[in-house]
User: What shape does this take?
Amino acid sequence: MLKRIRKQFFIRSAPSWLILAIDLYWVVNNFLFAHLIRFNFQYSLDGSVLKLQLPVVIAITVFSFLITGSYKGIIRHTGIRDAIKVISASFLIMVFLMVVVFFDNYLNWGESLNFPLSIIVIHFLLNTIVLIGLRFLFKIFYDILFSSFKAGPRILIYGAGEAGLLTYSIFKNDKANNAQVMGFIDDDKRKHGKRINGLRVYNPKDITQEFITDKKITRIIIAMQYIKQARLIEIVAQLATLSVKVKIVPPTKTWINNANLKVAQIKTINIEDLLGRSVIELDNAELQNEFNNKVVLITGAAGSIGSEICRQLANYNCKHLILVDQAESDLYNLQQYFNHKKHQNITCIVADVRNEKRMGSLFEKFKPEMVFHAAAYKHVPFMEANPYEAVLVNVFGTKTIADLVIKHRVKKFVMVSTDKAVNPTNVMGATKRIAEMYITSLQGKGTSKFITTRFGNVLGSSGSVIPLFKTQIKNGGPITLTHKDITRYFMTIPEACQLVLEAGKMGDGGEIFVFDMGTPIKIYDLALNMIQLSNLKYPEDINIEITGLRPGEKIYEELLGDGENCIPTHHSKIMIAKVKELDVEEIHHKINALCDSNRELNFEQTVLKMKEIVPEFISNNSVYEKFDQIEIDNN
Assistant: This one.
Protein backbone atom coordinates (compact mmCIF):
# COMPACT_ATOMS: atom_id res chain seq x y z
CA MET A 1 0.00 0.00 0.00
CA LEU A 2 2.78 2.40 0.97
CA LYS A 3 4.67 1.59 -2.23
CA ARG A 4 1.53 2.28 -4.29
CA ILE A 5 1.01 5.65 -2.61
CA ARG A 6 4.65 6.58 -3.12
CA LYS A 7 4.53 5.69 -6.81
CA GLN A 8 1.22 7.48 -7.34
CA PHE A 9 1.96 10.77 -5.60
CA PHE A 10 5.70 11.22 -5.25
CA ILE A 11 7.68 9.62 -8.04
CA ARG A 12 6.41 12.00 -10.71
CA SER A 13 7.61 15.58 -10.46
CA ALA A 14 4.95 18.15 -9.58
CA PRO A 15 4.00 20.43 -12.50
CA SER A 16 5.58 23.89 -12.46
CA TRP A 17 2.21 25.69 -12.33
CA LEU A 18 1.36 23.87 -9.09
CA ILE A 19 4.64 24.92 -7.45
CA LEU A 20 4.03 28.48 -8.64
CA ALA A 21 0.55 28.44 -7.10
CA ILE A 22 1.82 27.08 -3.76
CA ASP A 23 4.64 29.66 -3.65
CA LEU A 24 2.14 32.42 -4.43
CA TYR A 25 -0.14 31.20 -1.63
CA TRP A 26 2.72 31.40 0.88
CA VAL A 27 3.85 34.83 -0.35
CA VAL A 28 0.34 36.18 0.26
CA ASN A 29 0.22 34.57 3.70
CA ASN A 30 3.66 35.97 4.50
CA PHE A 31 2.43 39.43 3.51
CA LEU A 32 -0.44 39.18 5.97
CA PHE A 33 1.85 37.75 8.64
CA ALA A 34 4.32 40.61 8.08
CA HIS A 35 1.59 43.08 9.10
CA LEU A 36 1.00 41.17 12.33
CA ILE A 37 4.72 41.07 13.15
CA ARG A 38 5.14 44.78 12.36
CA PHE A 39 2.40 45.74 14.86
CA ASN A 40 3.30 43.16 17.52
CA PHE A 41 0.25 40.98 16.70
CA GLN A 42 -2.07 43.83 17.82
CA TYR A 43 -2.90 45.09 14.38
CA SER A 44 -6.38 44.62 12.98
CA LEU A 45 -6.14 44.05 9.22
CA ASP A 46 -8.10 46.62 7.22
CA GLY A 47 -10.05 44.82 4.49
CA SER A 48 -10.38 47.89 2.27
CA VAL A 49 -6.62 48.47 2.27
CA LEU A 50 -5.88 44.79 1.65
CA LYS A 51 -8.18 44.87 -1.39
CA LEU A 52 -5.81 47.40 -2.91
CA GLN A 53 -2.55 45.87 -1.67
CA LEU A 54 -3.04 42.15 -2.39
CA PRO A 55 -3.59 42.43 -6.19
CA VAL A 56 -0.37 44.44 -6.41
CA VAL A 57 1.52 41.87 -4.30
CA ILE A 58 0.15 38.99 -6.37
CA ALA A 59 1.01 40.64 -9.70
CA ILE A 60 4.53 41.53 -8.57
CA THR A 61 5.05 38.03 -7.12
CA VAL A 62 4.01 36.23 -10.30
CA PHE A 63 6.17 38.58 -12.39
CA SER A 64 9.21 37.99 -10.12
CA PHE A 65 8.76 34.22 -10.16
CA LEU A 66 8.50 34.22 -13.96
CA ILE A 67 11.72 36.24 -14.25
CA THR A 68 13.77 34.02 -11.89
CA GLY A 69 12.14 30.66 -12.73
CA SER A 70 12.26 29.67 -9.05
CA TYR A 71 9.17 27.50 -9.48
CA LYS A 72 10.74 25.30 -12.19
CA GLY A 73 12.99 23.22 -9.95
CA ILE A 74 12.27 19.64 -8.86
CA ILE A 75 11.53 20.09 -5.16
CA ARG A 76 12.95 16.75 -4.00
CA HIS A 77 16.29 17.73 -5.59
CA THR A 78 16.43 21.19 -4.02
CA GLY A 79 19.96 22.48 -3.64
CA ILE A 80 21.94 25.69 -3.24
CA ARG A 81 21.10 26.95 -6.73
CA ASP A 82 17.38 26.53 -6.09
CA ALA A 83 17.73 28.43 -2.80
CA ILE A 84 19.54 31.27 -4.61
CA LYS A 85 16.70 31.50 -7.12
CA VAL A 86 14.16 31.76 -4.28
CA ILE A 87 16.22 34.50 -2.62
CA SER A 88 16.45 36.33 -5.96
CA ALA A 89 12.67 36.13 -6.45
CA SER A 90 12.04 37.36 -2.88
CA PHE A 91 14.49 40.22 -3.40
CA LEU A 92 12.78 41.23 -6.65
CA ILE A 93 9.40 41.26 -4.88
CA MET A 94 10.86 43.57 -2.24
CA VAL A 95 12.42 45.89 -4.84
CA PHE A 96 9.26 46.12 -6.94
CA LEU A 97 7.13 46.84 -3.85
CA MET A 98 9.55 49.61 -2.86
CA VAL A 99 9.21 51.08 -6.37
CA VAL A 100 5.44 50.99 -5.96
CA VAL A 101 5.78 52.77 -2.57
CA PHE A 102 7.95 55.42 -4.24
CA PHE A 103 5.36 56.12 -6.94
CA ASP A 104 2.55 55.96 -4.40
CA ASN A 105 4.11 58.43 -1.94
CA TYR A 106 5.75 60.97 -4.25
CA LEU A 107 3.67 60.99 -7.38
CA ASN A 108 0.23 60.81 -5.75
CA TRP A 109 -1.12 58.74 -8.65
CA GLY A 110 -4.29 57.58 -6.90
CA GLU A 111 -5.71 56.16 -3.73
CA SER A 112 -2.86 55.43 -1.28
CA LEU A 113 -1.73 51.78 -1.01
CA ASN A 114 -0.17 52.50 2.38
CA PHE A 115 2.82 50.07 2.10
CA PRO A 116 5.09 50.59 5.14
CA LEU A 117 8.74 49.90 4.23
CA SER A 118 9.23 47.88 7.43
CA ILE A 119 6.48 45.47 6.32
CA ILE A 120 8.14 45.09 2.91
CA VAL A 121 11.46 44.17 4.53
CA ILE A 122 9.80 41.74 6.97
CA HIS A 123 7.90 40.26 4.03
CA PHE A 124 11.20 39.68 2.17
CA LEU A 125 12.70 37.87 5.17
CA LEU A 126 9.61 35.71 5.64
CA ASN A 127 9.51 34.77 1.94
CA THR A 128 13.16 33.77 1.99
CA ILE A 129 12.86 31.65 5.15
CA VAL A 130 9.49 30.05 4.42
CA LEU A 131 9.93 29.25 0.71
CA ILE A 132 13.41 27.79 1.16
CA GLY A 133 12.45 26.04 4.39
CA LEU A 134 9.40 24.40 2.82
CA ARG A 135 11.48 23.10 -0.05
CA PHE A 136 14.06 21.52 2.23
CA LEU A 137 11.36 20.13 4.55
CA PHE A 138 9.72 18.45 1.57
CA LYS A 139 13.10 17.12 0.46
CA ILE A 140 13.72 15.63 3.93
CA PHE A 141 10.22 14.14 3.99
CA TYR A 142 10.75 12.66 0.53
CA ASP A 143 14.08 11.19 1.60
CA ILE A 144 12.50 9.55 4.64
CA LEU A 145 9.54 8.26 2.64
CA PHE A 146 11.70 6.70 -0.07
CA SER A 147 14.50 5.40 2.10
CA SER A 148 14.58 1.66 2.47
CA PHE A 149 13.78 0.56 6.00
CA LYS A 150 16.55 -2.02 5.73
CA ALA A 151 19.97 -0.88 6.84
CA GLY A 152 22.20 -0.31 3.83
CA PRO A 153 25.95 -0.76 3.47
CA ARG A 154 28.18 1.41 5.65
CA ILE A 155 30.71 3.16 3.45
CA LEU A 156 33.97 5.05 3.69
CA ILE A 157 35.00 7.21 0.74
CA TYR A 158 38.74 7.30 0.01
CA GLY A 159 39.30 10.82 -1.26
CA ALA A 160 37.91 14.03 0.21
CA GLY A 161 38.31 16.08 -2.97
CA GLU A 162 35.79 16.87 -5.70
CA ALA A 163 35.43 13.24 -6.78
CA GLY A 164 34.86 12.19 -3.15
CA LEU A 165 32.19 14.83 -2.61
CA LEU A 166 30.48 13.85 -5.85
CA THR A 167 30.49 10.22 -4.72
CA TYR A 168 29.05 11.26 -1.36
CA SER A 169 26.22 13.15 -3.06
CA ILE A 170 25.20 10.27 -5.33
CA PHE A 171 25.02 7.88 -2.37
CA LYS A 172 23.08 10.44 -0.36
CA ASN A 173 20.55 10.84 -3.17
CA ASP A 174 20.28 7.14 -4.00
CA LYS A 175 17.40 5.87 -1.87
CA ALA A 176 17.30 2.36 -3.30
CA ASN A 177 20.60 1.34 -1.69
CA ASN A 178 20.09 3.35 1.52
CA ALA A 179 23.86 3.42 1.92
CA GLN A 180 25.32 5.20 4.93
CA VAL A 181 28.49 7.19 4.29
CA MET A 182 30.41 7.06 7.57
CA GLY A 183 33.31 9.32 6.65
CA PHE A 184 36.17 10.12 4.30
CA ILE A 185 39.78 8.96 4.07
CA ASP A 186 42.38 11.27 2.56
CA ASP A 187 46.16 11.37 2.10
CA ASP A 188 46.25 15.14 2.72
CA LYS A 189 47.40 15.67 6.33
CA ARG A 190 45.72 19.09 6.43
CA LYS A 191 42.30 17.46 6.14
CA HIS A 192 42.77 14.86 8.88
CA GLY A 193 40.35 15.29 11.77
CA LYS A 194 38.26 17.90 9.96
CA ARG A 195 34.65 17.42 8.88
CA ILE A 196 33.00 17.61 5.49
CA ASN A 197 29.20 17.61 5.40
CA GLY A 198 29.37 16.62 9.07
CA LEU A 199 31.53 13.56 8.33
CA ARG A 200 35.06 13.15 9.65
CA VAL A 201 38.12 12.88 7.40
CA TYR A 202 40.38 10.05 8.59
CA ASN A 203 44.10 9.42 8.22
CA PRO A 204 44.71 6.26 6.09
CA LYS A 205 46.83 4.91 8.97
CA ASP A 206 43.72 4.94 11.20
CA ILE A 207 41.90 2.45 8.96
CA THR A 208 42.71 -0.83 10.68
CA GLN A 209 40.71 -4.03 10.97
CA GLU A 210 39.67 -2.96 14.48
CA PHE A 211 38.37 0.34 13.08
CA ILE A 212 36.46 -1.47 10.31
CA THR A 213 34.91 -3.89 12.82
CA ASP A 214 34.02 -1.16 15.32
CA LYS A 215 32.38 1.09 12.70
CA LYS A 216 30.82 -1.90 10.88
CA ILE A 217 32.20 -0.69 7.55
CA THR A 218 31.38 -2.98 4.62
CA ARG A 219 32.72 -1.00 1.64
CA ILE A 220 35.45 1.47 0.84
CA ILE A 221 35.05 3.49 -2.36
CA ILE A 222 38.20 4.92 -3.95
CA ALA A 223 37.18 8.28 -5.41
CA MET A 224 40.31 9.98 -6.76
CA GLN A 225 40.46 10.98 -10.42
CA TYR A 226 44.12 12.01 -10.52
CA ILE A 227 46.21 9.43 -8.71
CA LYS A 228 49.55 7.90 -9.59
CA GLN A 229 49.54 4.22 -10.46
CA ALA A 230 52.07 3.40 -7.72
CA ARG A 231 49.95 5.12 -5.04
CA LEU A 232 46.78 3.34 -6.18
CA ILE A 233 48.57 0.00 -5.90
CA GLU A 234 49.70 0.91 -2.35
CA ILE A 235 46.16 1.89 -1.33
CA VAL A 236 44.63 -1.30 -2.73
CA ALA A 237 47.33 -3.42 -1.07
CA GLN A 238 46.48 -1.81 2.29
CA LEU A 239 42.70 -2.12 1.88
CA ALA A 240 42.91 -5.70 0.56
CA THR A 241 44.04 -6.85 4.01
CA LEU A 242 40.77 -5.58 5.54
CA SER A 243 37.42 -7.37 5.59
CA VAL A 244 35.76 -4.87 3.24
CA LYS A 245 34.81 -4.71 -0.42
CA VAL A 246 36.97 -2.24 -2.32
CA LYS A 247 35.34 -0.36 -5.19
CA ILE A 248 36.46 2.48 -7.42
CA VAL A 249 34.83 5.44 -9.13
CA PRO A 250 35.46 5.16 -12.90
CA PRO A 251 37.45 7.82 -14.77
CA THR A 252 35.52 10.99 -15.56
CA LYS A 253 35.71 10.35 -19.32
CA THR A 254 33.63 7.17 -18.97
CA TRP A 255 30.59 8.92 -17.48
CA ILE A 256 30.86 12.61 -18.35
CA ASN A 257 28.80 12.15 -21.54
CA ASN A 258 25.96 10.73 -19.44
CA ALA A 259 25.90 14.02 -17.46
CA ASN A 260 25.99 12.37 -14.05
CA LEU A 261 27.79 9.62 -12.22
CA LYS A 262 25.50 6.84 -11.02
CA VAL A 263 25.88 4.35 -8.17
CA ALA A 264 25.72 1.48 -10.67
CA GLN A 265 28.86 2.82 -12.38
CA ILE A 266 30.94 2.44 -9.22
CA LYS A 267 32.55 -0.93 -9.78
CA THR A 268 34.60 -3.47 -7.91
CA ILE A 269 38.26 -2.64 -8.41
CA ASN A 270 40.16 -5.03 -10.64
CA ILE A 271 43.72 -5.49 -11.79
CA GLU A 272 43.17 -3.46 -14.97
CA ASP A 273 42.38 -0.43 -12.80
CA LEU A 274 45.75 -0.80 -11.09
CA LEU A 275 47.67 -1.12 -14.34
CA GLY A 276 45.72 1.50 -16.28
CA ARG A 277 47.68 4.66 -16.92
CA SER A 278 46.89 8.34 -17.36
CA VAL A 279 44.55 9.43 -20.15
CA ILE A 280 46.27 10.00 -23.50
CA GLU A 281 45.73 13.43 -25.01
CA LEU A 282 45.38 13.23 -28.81
CA ASP A 283 44.58 15.87 -31.38
CA ASN A 284 41.31 14.36 -32.56
CA ALA A 285 40.86 17.10 -35.17
CA GLU A 286 44.10 16.06 -36.88
CA LEU A 287 43.19 12.37 -36.65
CA GLN A 288 39.77 13.17 -38.09
CA ASN A 289 41.46 14.92 -40.98
CA GLU A 290 43.89 12.00 -41.47
CA PHE A 291 41.18 9.35 -41.81
CA ASN A 292 38.30 11.43 -43.15
CA ASN A 293 36.81 9.90 -46.30
CA LYS A 294 39.65 7.34 -46.53
CA VAL A 295 39.41 3.67 -47.50
CA VAL A 296 41.27 1.74 -44.79
CA LEU A 297 42.09 -1.98 -44.74
CA ILE A 298 42.91 -3.72 -41.44
CA THR A 299 44.44 -7.20 -41.35
CA GLY A 300 44.05 -9.28 -38.20
CA ALA A 301 40.90 -7.22 -37.67
CA ALA A 302 39.27 -9.71 -35.31
CA GLY A 303 42.21 -9.88 -32.91
CA SER A 304 42.69 -7.94 -29.69
CA ILE A 305 44.60 -5.07 -31.28
CA GLY A 306 43.01 -5.22 -34.72
CA SER A 307 39.44 -5.09 -33.43
CA GLU A 308 40.17 -2.06 -31.23
CA ILE A 309 41.82 -0.28 -34.16
CA CYS A 310 38.62 -0.97 -36.12
CA ARG A 311 36.42 0.38 -33.32
CA GLN A 312 38.45 3.56 -33.06
CA LEU A 313 38.64 4.10 -36.82
CA ALA A 314 34.85 3.76 -37.02
CA ASN A 315 34.63 7.07 -35.13
CA TYR A 316 36.65 9.00 -37.74
CA ASN A 317 34.25 9.16 -40.69
CA CYS A 318 36.23 6.80 -42.92
CA LYS A 319 34.81 6.28 -46.39
CA HIS A 320 35.13 2.50 -46.10
CA LEU A 321 36.64 0.08 -43.58
CA ILE A 322 37.67 -3.37 -44.86
CA LEU A 323 38.16 -5.79 -41.97
CA VAL A 324 40.17 -8.89 -42.90
CA ASP A 325 40.81 -11.94 -40.72
CA GLN A 326 40.95 -15.72 -41.09
CA ALA A 327 39.19 -16.30 -37.71
CA GLU A 328 35.59 -16.46 -38.87
CA SER A 329 33.92 -16.66 -35.44
CA ASP A 330 35.74 -13.65 -34.02
CA LEU A 331 35.20 -11.71 -37.25
CA TYR A 332 31.49 -12.54 -37.12
CA ASN A 333 31.29 -11.20 -33.55
CA LEU A 334 32.99 -8.00 -34.66
CA GLN A 335 30.57 -7.68 -37.57
CA GLN A 336 27.63 -8.03 -35.18
CA TYR A 337 29.12 -5.34 -32.95
CA PHE A 338 29.22 -2.87 -35.83
CA ASN A 339 25.74 -3.88 -36.98
CA HIS A 340 24.43 -3.18 -33.49
CA LYS A 341 26.17 0.22 -33.47
CA LYS A 342 24.67 0.87 -36.93
CA HIS A 343 28.04 1.80 -38.42
CA GLN A 344 27.91 2.12 -42.19
CA ASN A 345 30.47 1.30 -44.89
CA ILE A 346 32.17 -1.54 -43.02
CA THR A 347 32.92 -4.78 -44.84
CA CYS A 348 34.11 -7.92 -43.01
CA ILE A 349 36.02 -10.43 -45.14
CA VAL A 350 37.32 -13.88 -44.24
CA ALA A 351 40.73 -14.10 -45.88
CA ASP A 352 44.30 -15.16 -45.15
CA VAL A 353 47.24 -12.75 -45.46
CA ARG A 354 49.35 -15.69 -46.67
CA ASN A 355 47.23 -16.04 -49.81
CA GLU A 356 48.80 -13.56 -52.22
CA LYS A 357 46.18 -14.02 -54.94
CA ARG A 358 43.25 -13.61 -52.57
CA MET A 359 44.73 -10.52 -50.89
CA GLY A 360 45.62 -9.07 -54.29
CA SER A 361 41.98 -9.34 -55.37
CA LEU A 362 40.91 -7.38 -52.26
CA PHE A 363 43.41 -4.60 -53.00
CA GLU A 364 42.20 -4.51 -56.59
CA LYS A 365 38.54 -4.37 -55.59
CA PHE A 366 38.59 -1.91 -52.66
CA LYS A 367 41.68 0.19 -53.52
CA PRO A 368 42.64 1.00 -49.89
CA GLU A 369 44.49 4.24 -49.16
CA MET A 370 45.83 3.05 -45.79
CA VAL A 371 46.62 -0.39 -44.40
CA PHE A 372 46.98 -1.34 -40.74
CA HIS A 373 48.70 -4.72 -40.53
CA ALA A 374 47.87 -6.38 -37.19
CA ALA A 375 47.72 -10.01 -38.41
CA ALA A 376 50.36 -12.11 -36.66
CA TYR A 377 51.02 -15.15 -34.54
CA LYS A 378 52.09 -13.91 -31.10
CA HIS A 379 52.16 -16.90 -28.72
CA VAL A 380 55.82 -17.49 -27.82
CA PRO A 381 55.81 -21.21 -26.82
CA PHE A 382 53.53 -22.20 -29.73
CA MET A 383 55.71 -20.43 -32.28
CA GLU A 384 58.84 -21.94 -30.72
CA ALA A 385 57.35 -25.35 -31.46
CA ASN A 386 56.01 -24.29 -34.88
CA PRO A 387 58.55 -22.07 -36.64
CA TYR A 388 57.02 -22.89 -40.02
CA GLU A 389 53.76 -21.15 -39.12
CA ALA A 390 55.57 -18.23 -37.46
CA VAL A 391 57.59 -17.51 -40.61
CA LEU A 392 54.64 -18.14 -42.93
CA VAL A 393 52.38 -15.61 -41.17
CA ASN A 394 54.70 -13.11 -39.50
CA VAL A 395 57.27 -12.89 -42.29
CA PHE A 396 55.71 -14.11 -45.54
CA GLY A 397 52.24 -12.74 -44.64
CA THR A 398 53.72 -9.33 -43.85
CA LYS A 399 55.85 -9.41 -47.01
CA THR A 400 52.79 -10.29 -49.10
CA ILE A 401 50.74 -7.36 -47.79
CA ALA A 402 53.68 -4.93 -48.00
CA ASP A 403 54.43 -5.90 -51.62
CA LEU A 404 50.75 -5.37 -52.51
CA VAL A 405 50.89 -1.95 -50.85
CA ILE A 406 53.69 -0.93 -53.23
CA LYS A 407 52.01 -2.51 -56.25
CA HIS A 408 48.70 -0.72 -55.60
CA ARG A 409 50.31 2.54 -54.49
CA VAL A 410 48.67 2.59 -51.09
CA LYS A 411 49.55 5.85 -49.29
CA LYS A 412 50.47 4.40 -45.90
CA PHE A 413 51.23 1.02 -44.38
CA VAL A 414 51.35 0.73 -40.56
CA MET A 415 52.58 -2.51 -38.99
CA VAL A 416 51.93 -3.54 -35.39
CA SER A 417 55.11 -5.07 -33.95
CA THR A 418 56.16 -6.11 -30.44
CA ASP A 419 58.89 -5.53 -27.87
CA LYS A 420 59.76 -9.23 -28.29
CA ALA A 421 61.35 -8.25 -31.61
CA VAL A 422 64.08 -6.49 -29.63
CA ASN A 423 67.14 -8.73 -29.06
CA PRO A 424 64.83 -11.72 -29.65
CA THR A 425 65.23 -14.92 -27.63
CA ASN A 426 62.45 -16.81 -29.40
CA VAL A 427 61.15 -17.64 -32.86
CA MET A 428 58.11 -15.38 -32.58
CA GLY A 429 60.20 -12.32 -31.65
CA ALA A 430 62.71 -13.08 -34.40
CA THR A 431 59.99 -13.30 -37.07
CA LYS A 432 58.61 -9.94 -35.96
CA ARG A 433 62.08 -8.41 -36.11
CA ILE A 434 62.55 -9.78 -39.64
CA ALA A 435 59.16 -8.30 -40.57
CA GLU A 436 60.31 -4.94 -39.14
CA MET A 437 63.49 -5.12 -41.23
CA TYR A 438 61.57 -5.88 -44.41
CA ILE A 439 59.10 -3.05 -43.83
CA THR A 440 61.88 -0.56 -43.09
CA SER A 441 63.78 -1.63 -46.21
CA LEU A 442 60.80 -0.87 -48.46
CA GLN A 443 60.77 2.83 -47.69
CA GLY A 444 61.62 4.69 -50.88
CA LYS A 445 60.77 1.74 -53.17
CA GLY A 446 57.59 3.45 -54.29
CA THR A 447 55.23 6.21 -53.23
CA SER A 448 53.99 4.37 -50.13
CA LYS A 449 55.04 5.29 -46.59
CA PHE A 450 56.01 2.31 -44.41
CA ILE A 451 55.65 2.75 -40.65
CA THR A 452 56.25 0.30 -37.79
CA THR A 453 54.89 0.58 -34.24
CA ARG A 454 56.51 -1.35 -31.40
CA PHE A 455 55.05 -1.86 -27.90
CA GLY A 456 54.74 -4.44 -25.13
CA ASN A 457 51.93 -6.47 -23.60
CA VAL A 458 48.37 -5.24 -23.72
CA LEU A 459 45.86 -5.90 -20.96
CA GLY A 460 43.17 -8.41 -21.85
CA SER A 461 44.71 -9.59 -25.10
CA SER A 462 44.57 -13.24 -26.06
CA GLY A 463 47.41 -15.04 -24.30
CA SER A 464 47.75 -12.35 -21.61
CA VAL A 465 48.60 -13.52 -18.09
CA ILE A 466 45.69 -11.64 -16.54
CA PRO A 467 42.84 -13.78 -17.99
CA LEU A 468 44.92 -16.87 -17.14
CA PHE A 469 45.42 -15.77 -13.52
CA LYS A 470 41.71 -14.93 -13.18
CA THR A 471 40.77 -18.41 -14.36
CA GLN A 472 43.27 -20.04 -12.00
CA ILE A 473 41.98 -18.02 -9.03
CA LYS A 474 38.39 -18.90 -9.93
CA ASN A 475 39.36 -22.58 -9.98
CA GLY A 476 40.94 -22.34 -6.54
CA GLY A 477 44.55 -22.02 -7.67
CA PRO A 478 47.39 -22.38 -7.79
CA ILE A 479 48.58 -19.47 -9.91
CA THR A 480 51.38 -20.69 -12.16
CA LEU A 481 54.29 -18.36 -12.76
CA THR A 482 57.30 -19.17 -14.91
CA HIS A 483 59.84 -17.14 -12.89
CA LYS A 484 59.63 -15.05 -9.70
CA ASP A 485 61.62 -12.15 -11.21
CA ILE A 486 59.89 -11.97 -14.57
CA THR A 487 58.70 -8.46 -15.51
CA ARG A 488 56.59 -7.13 -18.35
CA TYR A 489 55.47 -3.77 -19.71
CA PHE A 490 51.70 -3.34 -19.80
CA MET A 491 49.41 -1.05 -21.73
CA THR A 492 45.63 -1.03 -22.16
CA ILE A 493 44.35 -2.06 -25.58
CA PRO A 494 42.58 1.28 -26.25
CA GLU A 495 45.74 3.18 -25.26
CA ALA A 496 47.93 1.06 -27.53
CA CYS A 497 45.57 1.50 -30.48
CA GLN A 498 45.28 5.25 -29.94
CA LEU A 499 49.05 5.47 -30.18
CA VAL A 500 49.09 3.26 -33.29
CA LEU A 501 46.68 5.65 -35.01
CA GLU A 502 48.66 8.68 -33.85
CA ALA A 503 51.95 7.14 -35.07
CA GLY A 504 50.31 6.31 -38.39
CA LYS A 505 49.27 9.94 -38.74
CA MET A 506 52.67 11.45 -37.88
CA GLY A 507 54.84 8.93 -39.76
CA ASP A 508 56.76 10.08 -42.86
CA GLY A 509 57.92 6.57 -43.69
CA GLY A 510 60.75 4.34 -42.56
CA GLU A 511 60.26 4.96 -38.81
CA ILE A 512 59.95 2.41 -36.05
CA PHE A 513 57.82 4.12 -33.43
CA VAL A 514 58.37 3.01 -29.84
CA PHE A 515 55.69 3.71 -27.23
CA ASP A 516 56.29 4.85 -23.67
CA MET A 517 55.22 1.75 -21.76
CA GLY A 518 55.75 3.24 -18.32
CA THR A 519 57.34 1.20 -15.56
CA PRO A 520 57.67 -2.58 -16.06
CA ILE A 521 55.46 -4.62 -13.74
CA LYS A 522 56.74 -7.61 -11.80
CA ILE A 523 54.40 -10.48 -12.65
CA TYR A 524 54.81 -12.00 -9.18
CA ASP A 525 53.49 -8.77 -7.63
CA LEU A 526 50.70 -8.77 -10.20
CA ALA A 527 49.67 -12.26 -9.04
CA LEU A 528 49.70 -11.18 -5.38
CA ASN A 529 47.53 -8.13 -6.17
CA MET A 530 45.02 -10.28 -8.05
CA ILE A 531 44.77 -12.68 -5.09
CA GLN A 532 44.18 -9.76 -2.72
CA LEU A 533 41.57 -8.17 -5.01
CA SER A 534 39.70 -11.48 -4.94
CA ASN A 535 39.47 -11.15 -1.13
CA LEU A 536 41.72 -14.17 -0.77
CA LYS A 537 45.02 -14.64 1.02
CA TYR A 538 48.37 -15.93 -0.17
CA PRO A 539 49.37 -18.69 0.38
CA GLU A 540 46.51 -19.85 2.65
CA ASP A 541 43.77 -19.56 0.01
CA ILE A 542 45.70 -19.35 -3.28
CA ASN A 543 49.27 -20.46 -3.75
CA ILE A 544 51.76 -19.35 -6.43
CA GLU A 545 53.80 -22.06 -8.14
CA ILE A 546 57.01 -21.31 -10.05
CA THR A 547 57.08 -23.60 -13.11
CA GLY A 548 60.24 -22.42 -14.87
CA LEU A 549 60.72 -20.35 -18.01
CA ARG A 550 58.94 -21.59 -21.11
CA PRO A 551 60.83 -22.15 -24.38
CA GLY A 552 61.99 -18.82 -25.75
CA GLU A 553 60.74 -16.78 -22.80
CA LYS A 554 62.66 -13.77 -21.45
CA ILE A 555 62.79 -12.59 -17.86
CA TYR A 556 62.94 -8.94 -18.92
CA GLU A 557 61.54 -7.34 -22.06
CA GLU A 558 63.23 -4.48 -23.91
CA LEU A 559 61.94 -1.74 -26.18
CA LEU A 560 65.25 -0.89 -27.84
CA GLY A 561 67.82 -3.25 -29.35
CA ASP A 562 71.59 -3.15 -29.15
CA GLY A 563 72.91 -0.06 -30.88
CA GLU A 564 69.44 1.57 -30.95
CA ASN A 565 68.44 4.79 -29.25
CA CYS A 566 65.34 6.97 -29.15
CA ILE A 567 64.46 10.26 -30.78
CA PRO A 568 61.57 12.14 -29.13
CA THR A 569 58.53 13.30 -31.12
CA HIS A 570 55.96 16.00 -30.42
CA HIS A 571 53.91 13.38 -28.54
CA SER A 572 55.37 12.58 -25.12
CA LYS A 573 54.39 8.89 -25.31
CA ILE A 574 55.76 8.21 -28.81
CA MET A 575 59.45 8.01 -29.73
CA ILE A 576 61.33 6.96 -32.83
CA ALA A 577 63.87 4.12 -32.57
CA LYS A 578 67.07 5.00 -34.35
CA VAL A 579 67.97 1.61 -35.83
CA LYS A 580 71.05 0.33 -37.61
CA GLU A 581 71.36 0.92 -41.33
CA LEU A 582 70.33 -2.08 -43.42
CA ASP A 583 71.78 -3.47 -46.63
CA VAL A 584 68.47 -3.52 -48.50
CA GLU A 585 69.45 -5.88 -51.29
CA GLU A 586 71.03 -8.35 -48.86
CA ILE A 587 68.02 -8.25 -46.54
CA HIS A 588 65.61 -8.88 -49.41
CA HIS A 589 67.72 -11.76 -50.69
CA LYS A 590 67.92 -13.41 -47.25
CA ILE A 591 64.20 -12.95 -46.49
CA ASN A 592 63.22 -14.42 -49.86
CA ALA A 593 65.54 -17.35 -49.19
CA LEU A 594 64.00 -17.81 -45.74
CA CYS A 595 60.47 -17.91 -47.16
CA ASP A 596 61.52 -20.41 -49.85
CA SER A 597 63.41 -22.60 -47.39
CA ASN A 598 60.50 -22.55 -44.94
CA ARG A 599 58.32 -24.45 -47.41
CA GLU A 600 60.56 -27.50 -46.96
CA LEU A 601 59.30 -27.85 -43.36
CA ASN A 602 62.82 -28.18 -42.01
CA PHE A 603 62.44 -26.35 -38.70
CA GLU A 604 66.15 -26.30 -37.86
CA GLN A 605 67.07 -24.97 -41.27
CA THR A 606 64.42 -22.27 -40.90
CA VAL A 607 65.71 -21.17 -37.49
CA LEU A 608 69.31 -21.14 -38.74
CA LYS A 609 68.37 -18.79 -41.59
CA MET A 610 66.50 -16.57 -39.11
CA LYS A 611 69.61 -16.33 -36.93
CA GLU A 612 71.61 -15.39 -40.02
CA ILE A 613 69.22 -12.51 -40.77
CA VAL A 614 68.98 -11.41 -37.10
CA PRO A 615 72.42 -11.94 -35.51
CA GLU A 616 71.13 -10.76 -32.09
CA PHE A 617 68.59 -13.63 -32.07
CA ILE A 618 69.96 -15.76 -29.19
CA SER A 619 67.59 -18.56 -28.19
CA ASN A 620 66.71 -18.94 -24.52
CA ASN A 621 65.53 -22.13 -22.85
CA SER A 622 64.99 -23.61 -26.30
CA VAL A 623 66.11 -26.59 -28.39
CA TYR A 624 67.61 -24.05 -30.79
CA GLU A 625 70.21 -22.89 -28.25
CA LYS A 626 72.58 -25.44 -29.79
CA PHE A 627 72.95 -23.27 -32.90
CA ASP A 628 74.12 -20.36 -30.78
CA GLN A 629 76.67 -22.64 -29.11
CA ILE A 630 77.98 -23.71 -32.54
CA GLU A 631 78.55 -20.06 -33.44
CA ILE A 632 80.40 -19.46 -30.15
CA ASP A 633 82.60 -22.50 -30.76
CA ASN A 634 83.34 -21.41 -34.33
CA ASN A 635 84.38 -17.98 -33.12
Observations:
- DSSP finds 22 helices and 22 strands in the chain.
- Residues 90 and 227 are 45 Å apart (CA to CA).
